[in-house]
Write a structure and sequence with these properties.
alpha+beta; two-stranded parallel sheet; elongated; membrane; transmembrane helix; transmembrane
Length: about 70
């Protein structure tokens, strides 16, 4: 596929219900995908405490840089 519009929209949903190691690596891998970021829709549910705040900031930054219209 040559143009970003040619790619289908994909939905990425993740649910974190317990402290999860390497969550920041997960977000980095998403950022490294060779896929138009504006064609990736993300839904997140985080049901844990502040242990995940730093990785979530990394992910929020990724989303903001990839598609500022989310904010």
């Amino acid at each position: 596929m040559e143009k970003p519009e040619d790619y289908p929209v994909v939905q990425l949903s993740f649910f974190v219900e317990s402290p999860t190691p390497f969550l920041d690596v997960f977000f980095e891998r998403i950022a490294e995908l060779n896929y138009p970021k504006n064609m990736i829709h993300v839904t997140a549910h985080v049901g844990v405490s502040v242990m995940l705040i730093a990785p979530l900031f990394c992910f929020t930054n990724f989303v903001h840089l990839s598609n500022p219209s989310y904010f």
